[in-house]
Amino acid sequence: MPYLGSTLFVTSLLVGLFVSMTAYFLLVRAVWPRFAERVTLRWQQHPVRSFFLGLPIGVVLFGASAGLLNLPGGAKGIGFVAASLTAGFTLAGMSGLAGRIGAGLAKPNDEGSEWRQTLRGGVVLVISCLMPLLGWFLIFPIALVGGVGAAAQALFSKSKAPARADLAPHLQVIPAAHAEQQRAQSS
Predict the structure, then answer these.
(1) 29 contacts: CB under 8 Å, gap ≥ 6
(2) pLDDT tens digits for range 84-95
(3) What's the domain range around 55?
């Protein structure tokens, strides 16, 4: 029983981390709805580009933050601010993945309340990151790196996000039976 305290500490730390991540996804959706739509659209249309764009940007951001944190004196405060901004930027990009996953899990009564989709997708995303090996070494790193890339694309893109009504066809999941009916009608 000597390890019970450590186990409970790590478990509560992880639960707190993942609950706060999901809350941050909802915060991004509520405070910056246009940005949340743009980043969700980037995950929908260009997930591979988001990942490969996030690799060099993430290395620079995380490397600069770590370098500043290792400097002596008052630079550690600057490093802490840089690390916090990097984490916030990354999680803002991951909120788009949560929105994308939530759109795939949409219910008919979700119309007009995208926060439900973000919540549902965020819960699925963070729980899938808990899966040993696959979640730790594949899902979570891809979500982190792709989040940096999607956020960068959404932040620096010249195009404005479409209105929610224009975005809906991109995020809608069409059931197989409905898709077959459409193919039959078009033939």
Answers:
(1) 36, 95, 99, 114, 115, 118
(2) 999 999 999 999
(3) 25-163
